[in-house]
Design goal:
Length: about 120
């Protein structure tokens, strides 16, 4: 890998299921980009057994400045088991954030249970 590629920015995420104390495996994640007041799909993926994506969500020329949104499909992950009527309290969790440095590593982790979540800019 060249030094230029090593210095290029990237976007990564991971999901931890705090109700089980384990990584959230096979959870669907959609990445969207805001352009002209509309969101367009960049990609959809699923977490692996470690709760991470197998590759960065954005790298290189795809790592553009702007507003993005990650949508975590936690309702399907938890399978509606958290409510007697199978209506999840949390269904799709949107996290909207900005990328202002194409050379930086943006890491957006999600800590989630059937009834709560938190996130932060990780490293």
């Amino acid at each position: 890998m060249s030094l230029q590629n090593e210095a290029s920015g990237r976007l990564t995420t991971h999901v931890l299921d705090v109700s089980s104390g384990k990584p959230a495996a096979k959870l669907r994640i959609d990445l969207l980009r805001l352009e002209n007041d509309r969101f367009s799909s960049v990609q959809s993926t699923h977490t692996n057994d470690d709760g991470r994506c197998d590759s960065p969500l954005l790298t290189g020329d795809n790592m553009r400045l702007g507003t993005y949104e990650l949508r975590f499909h936690v309702g399907a992950y938890f399978g509606g088991q958290q409510a007697a009527d199978n209506v999840p309290f949390l269904d799709i969790i949107p996290i909207r954030f900005g990328i202002s440095d194409q050379q930086a590593h943006y890491h957006v982790p999600l800590l989630v249970s059937p009834f709560s979540y938190s996130t932060y800019r990780g490293s």
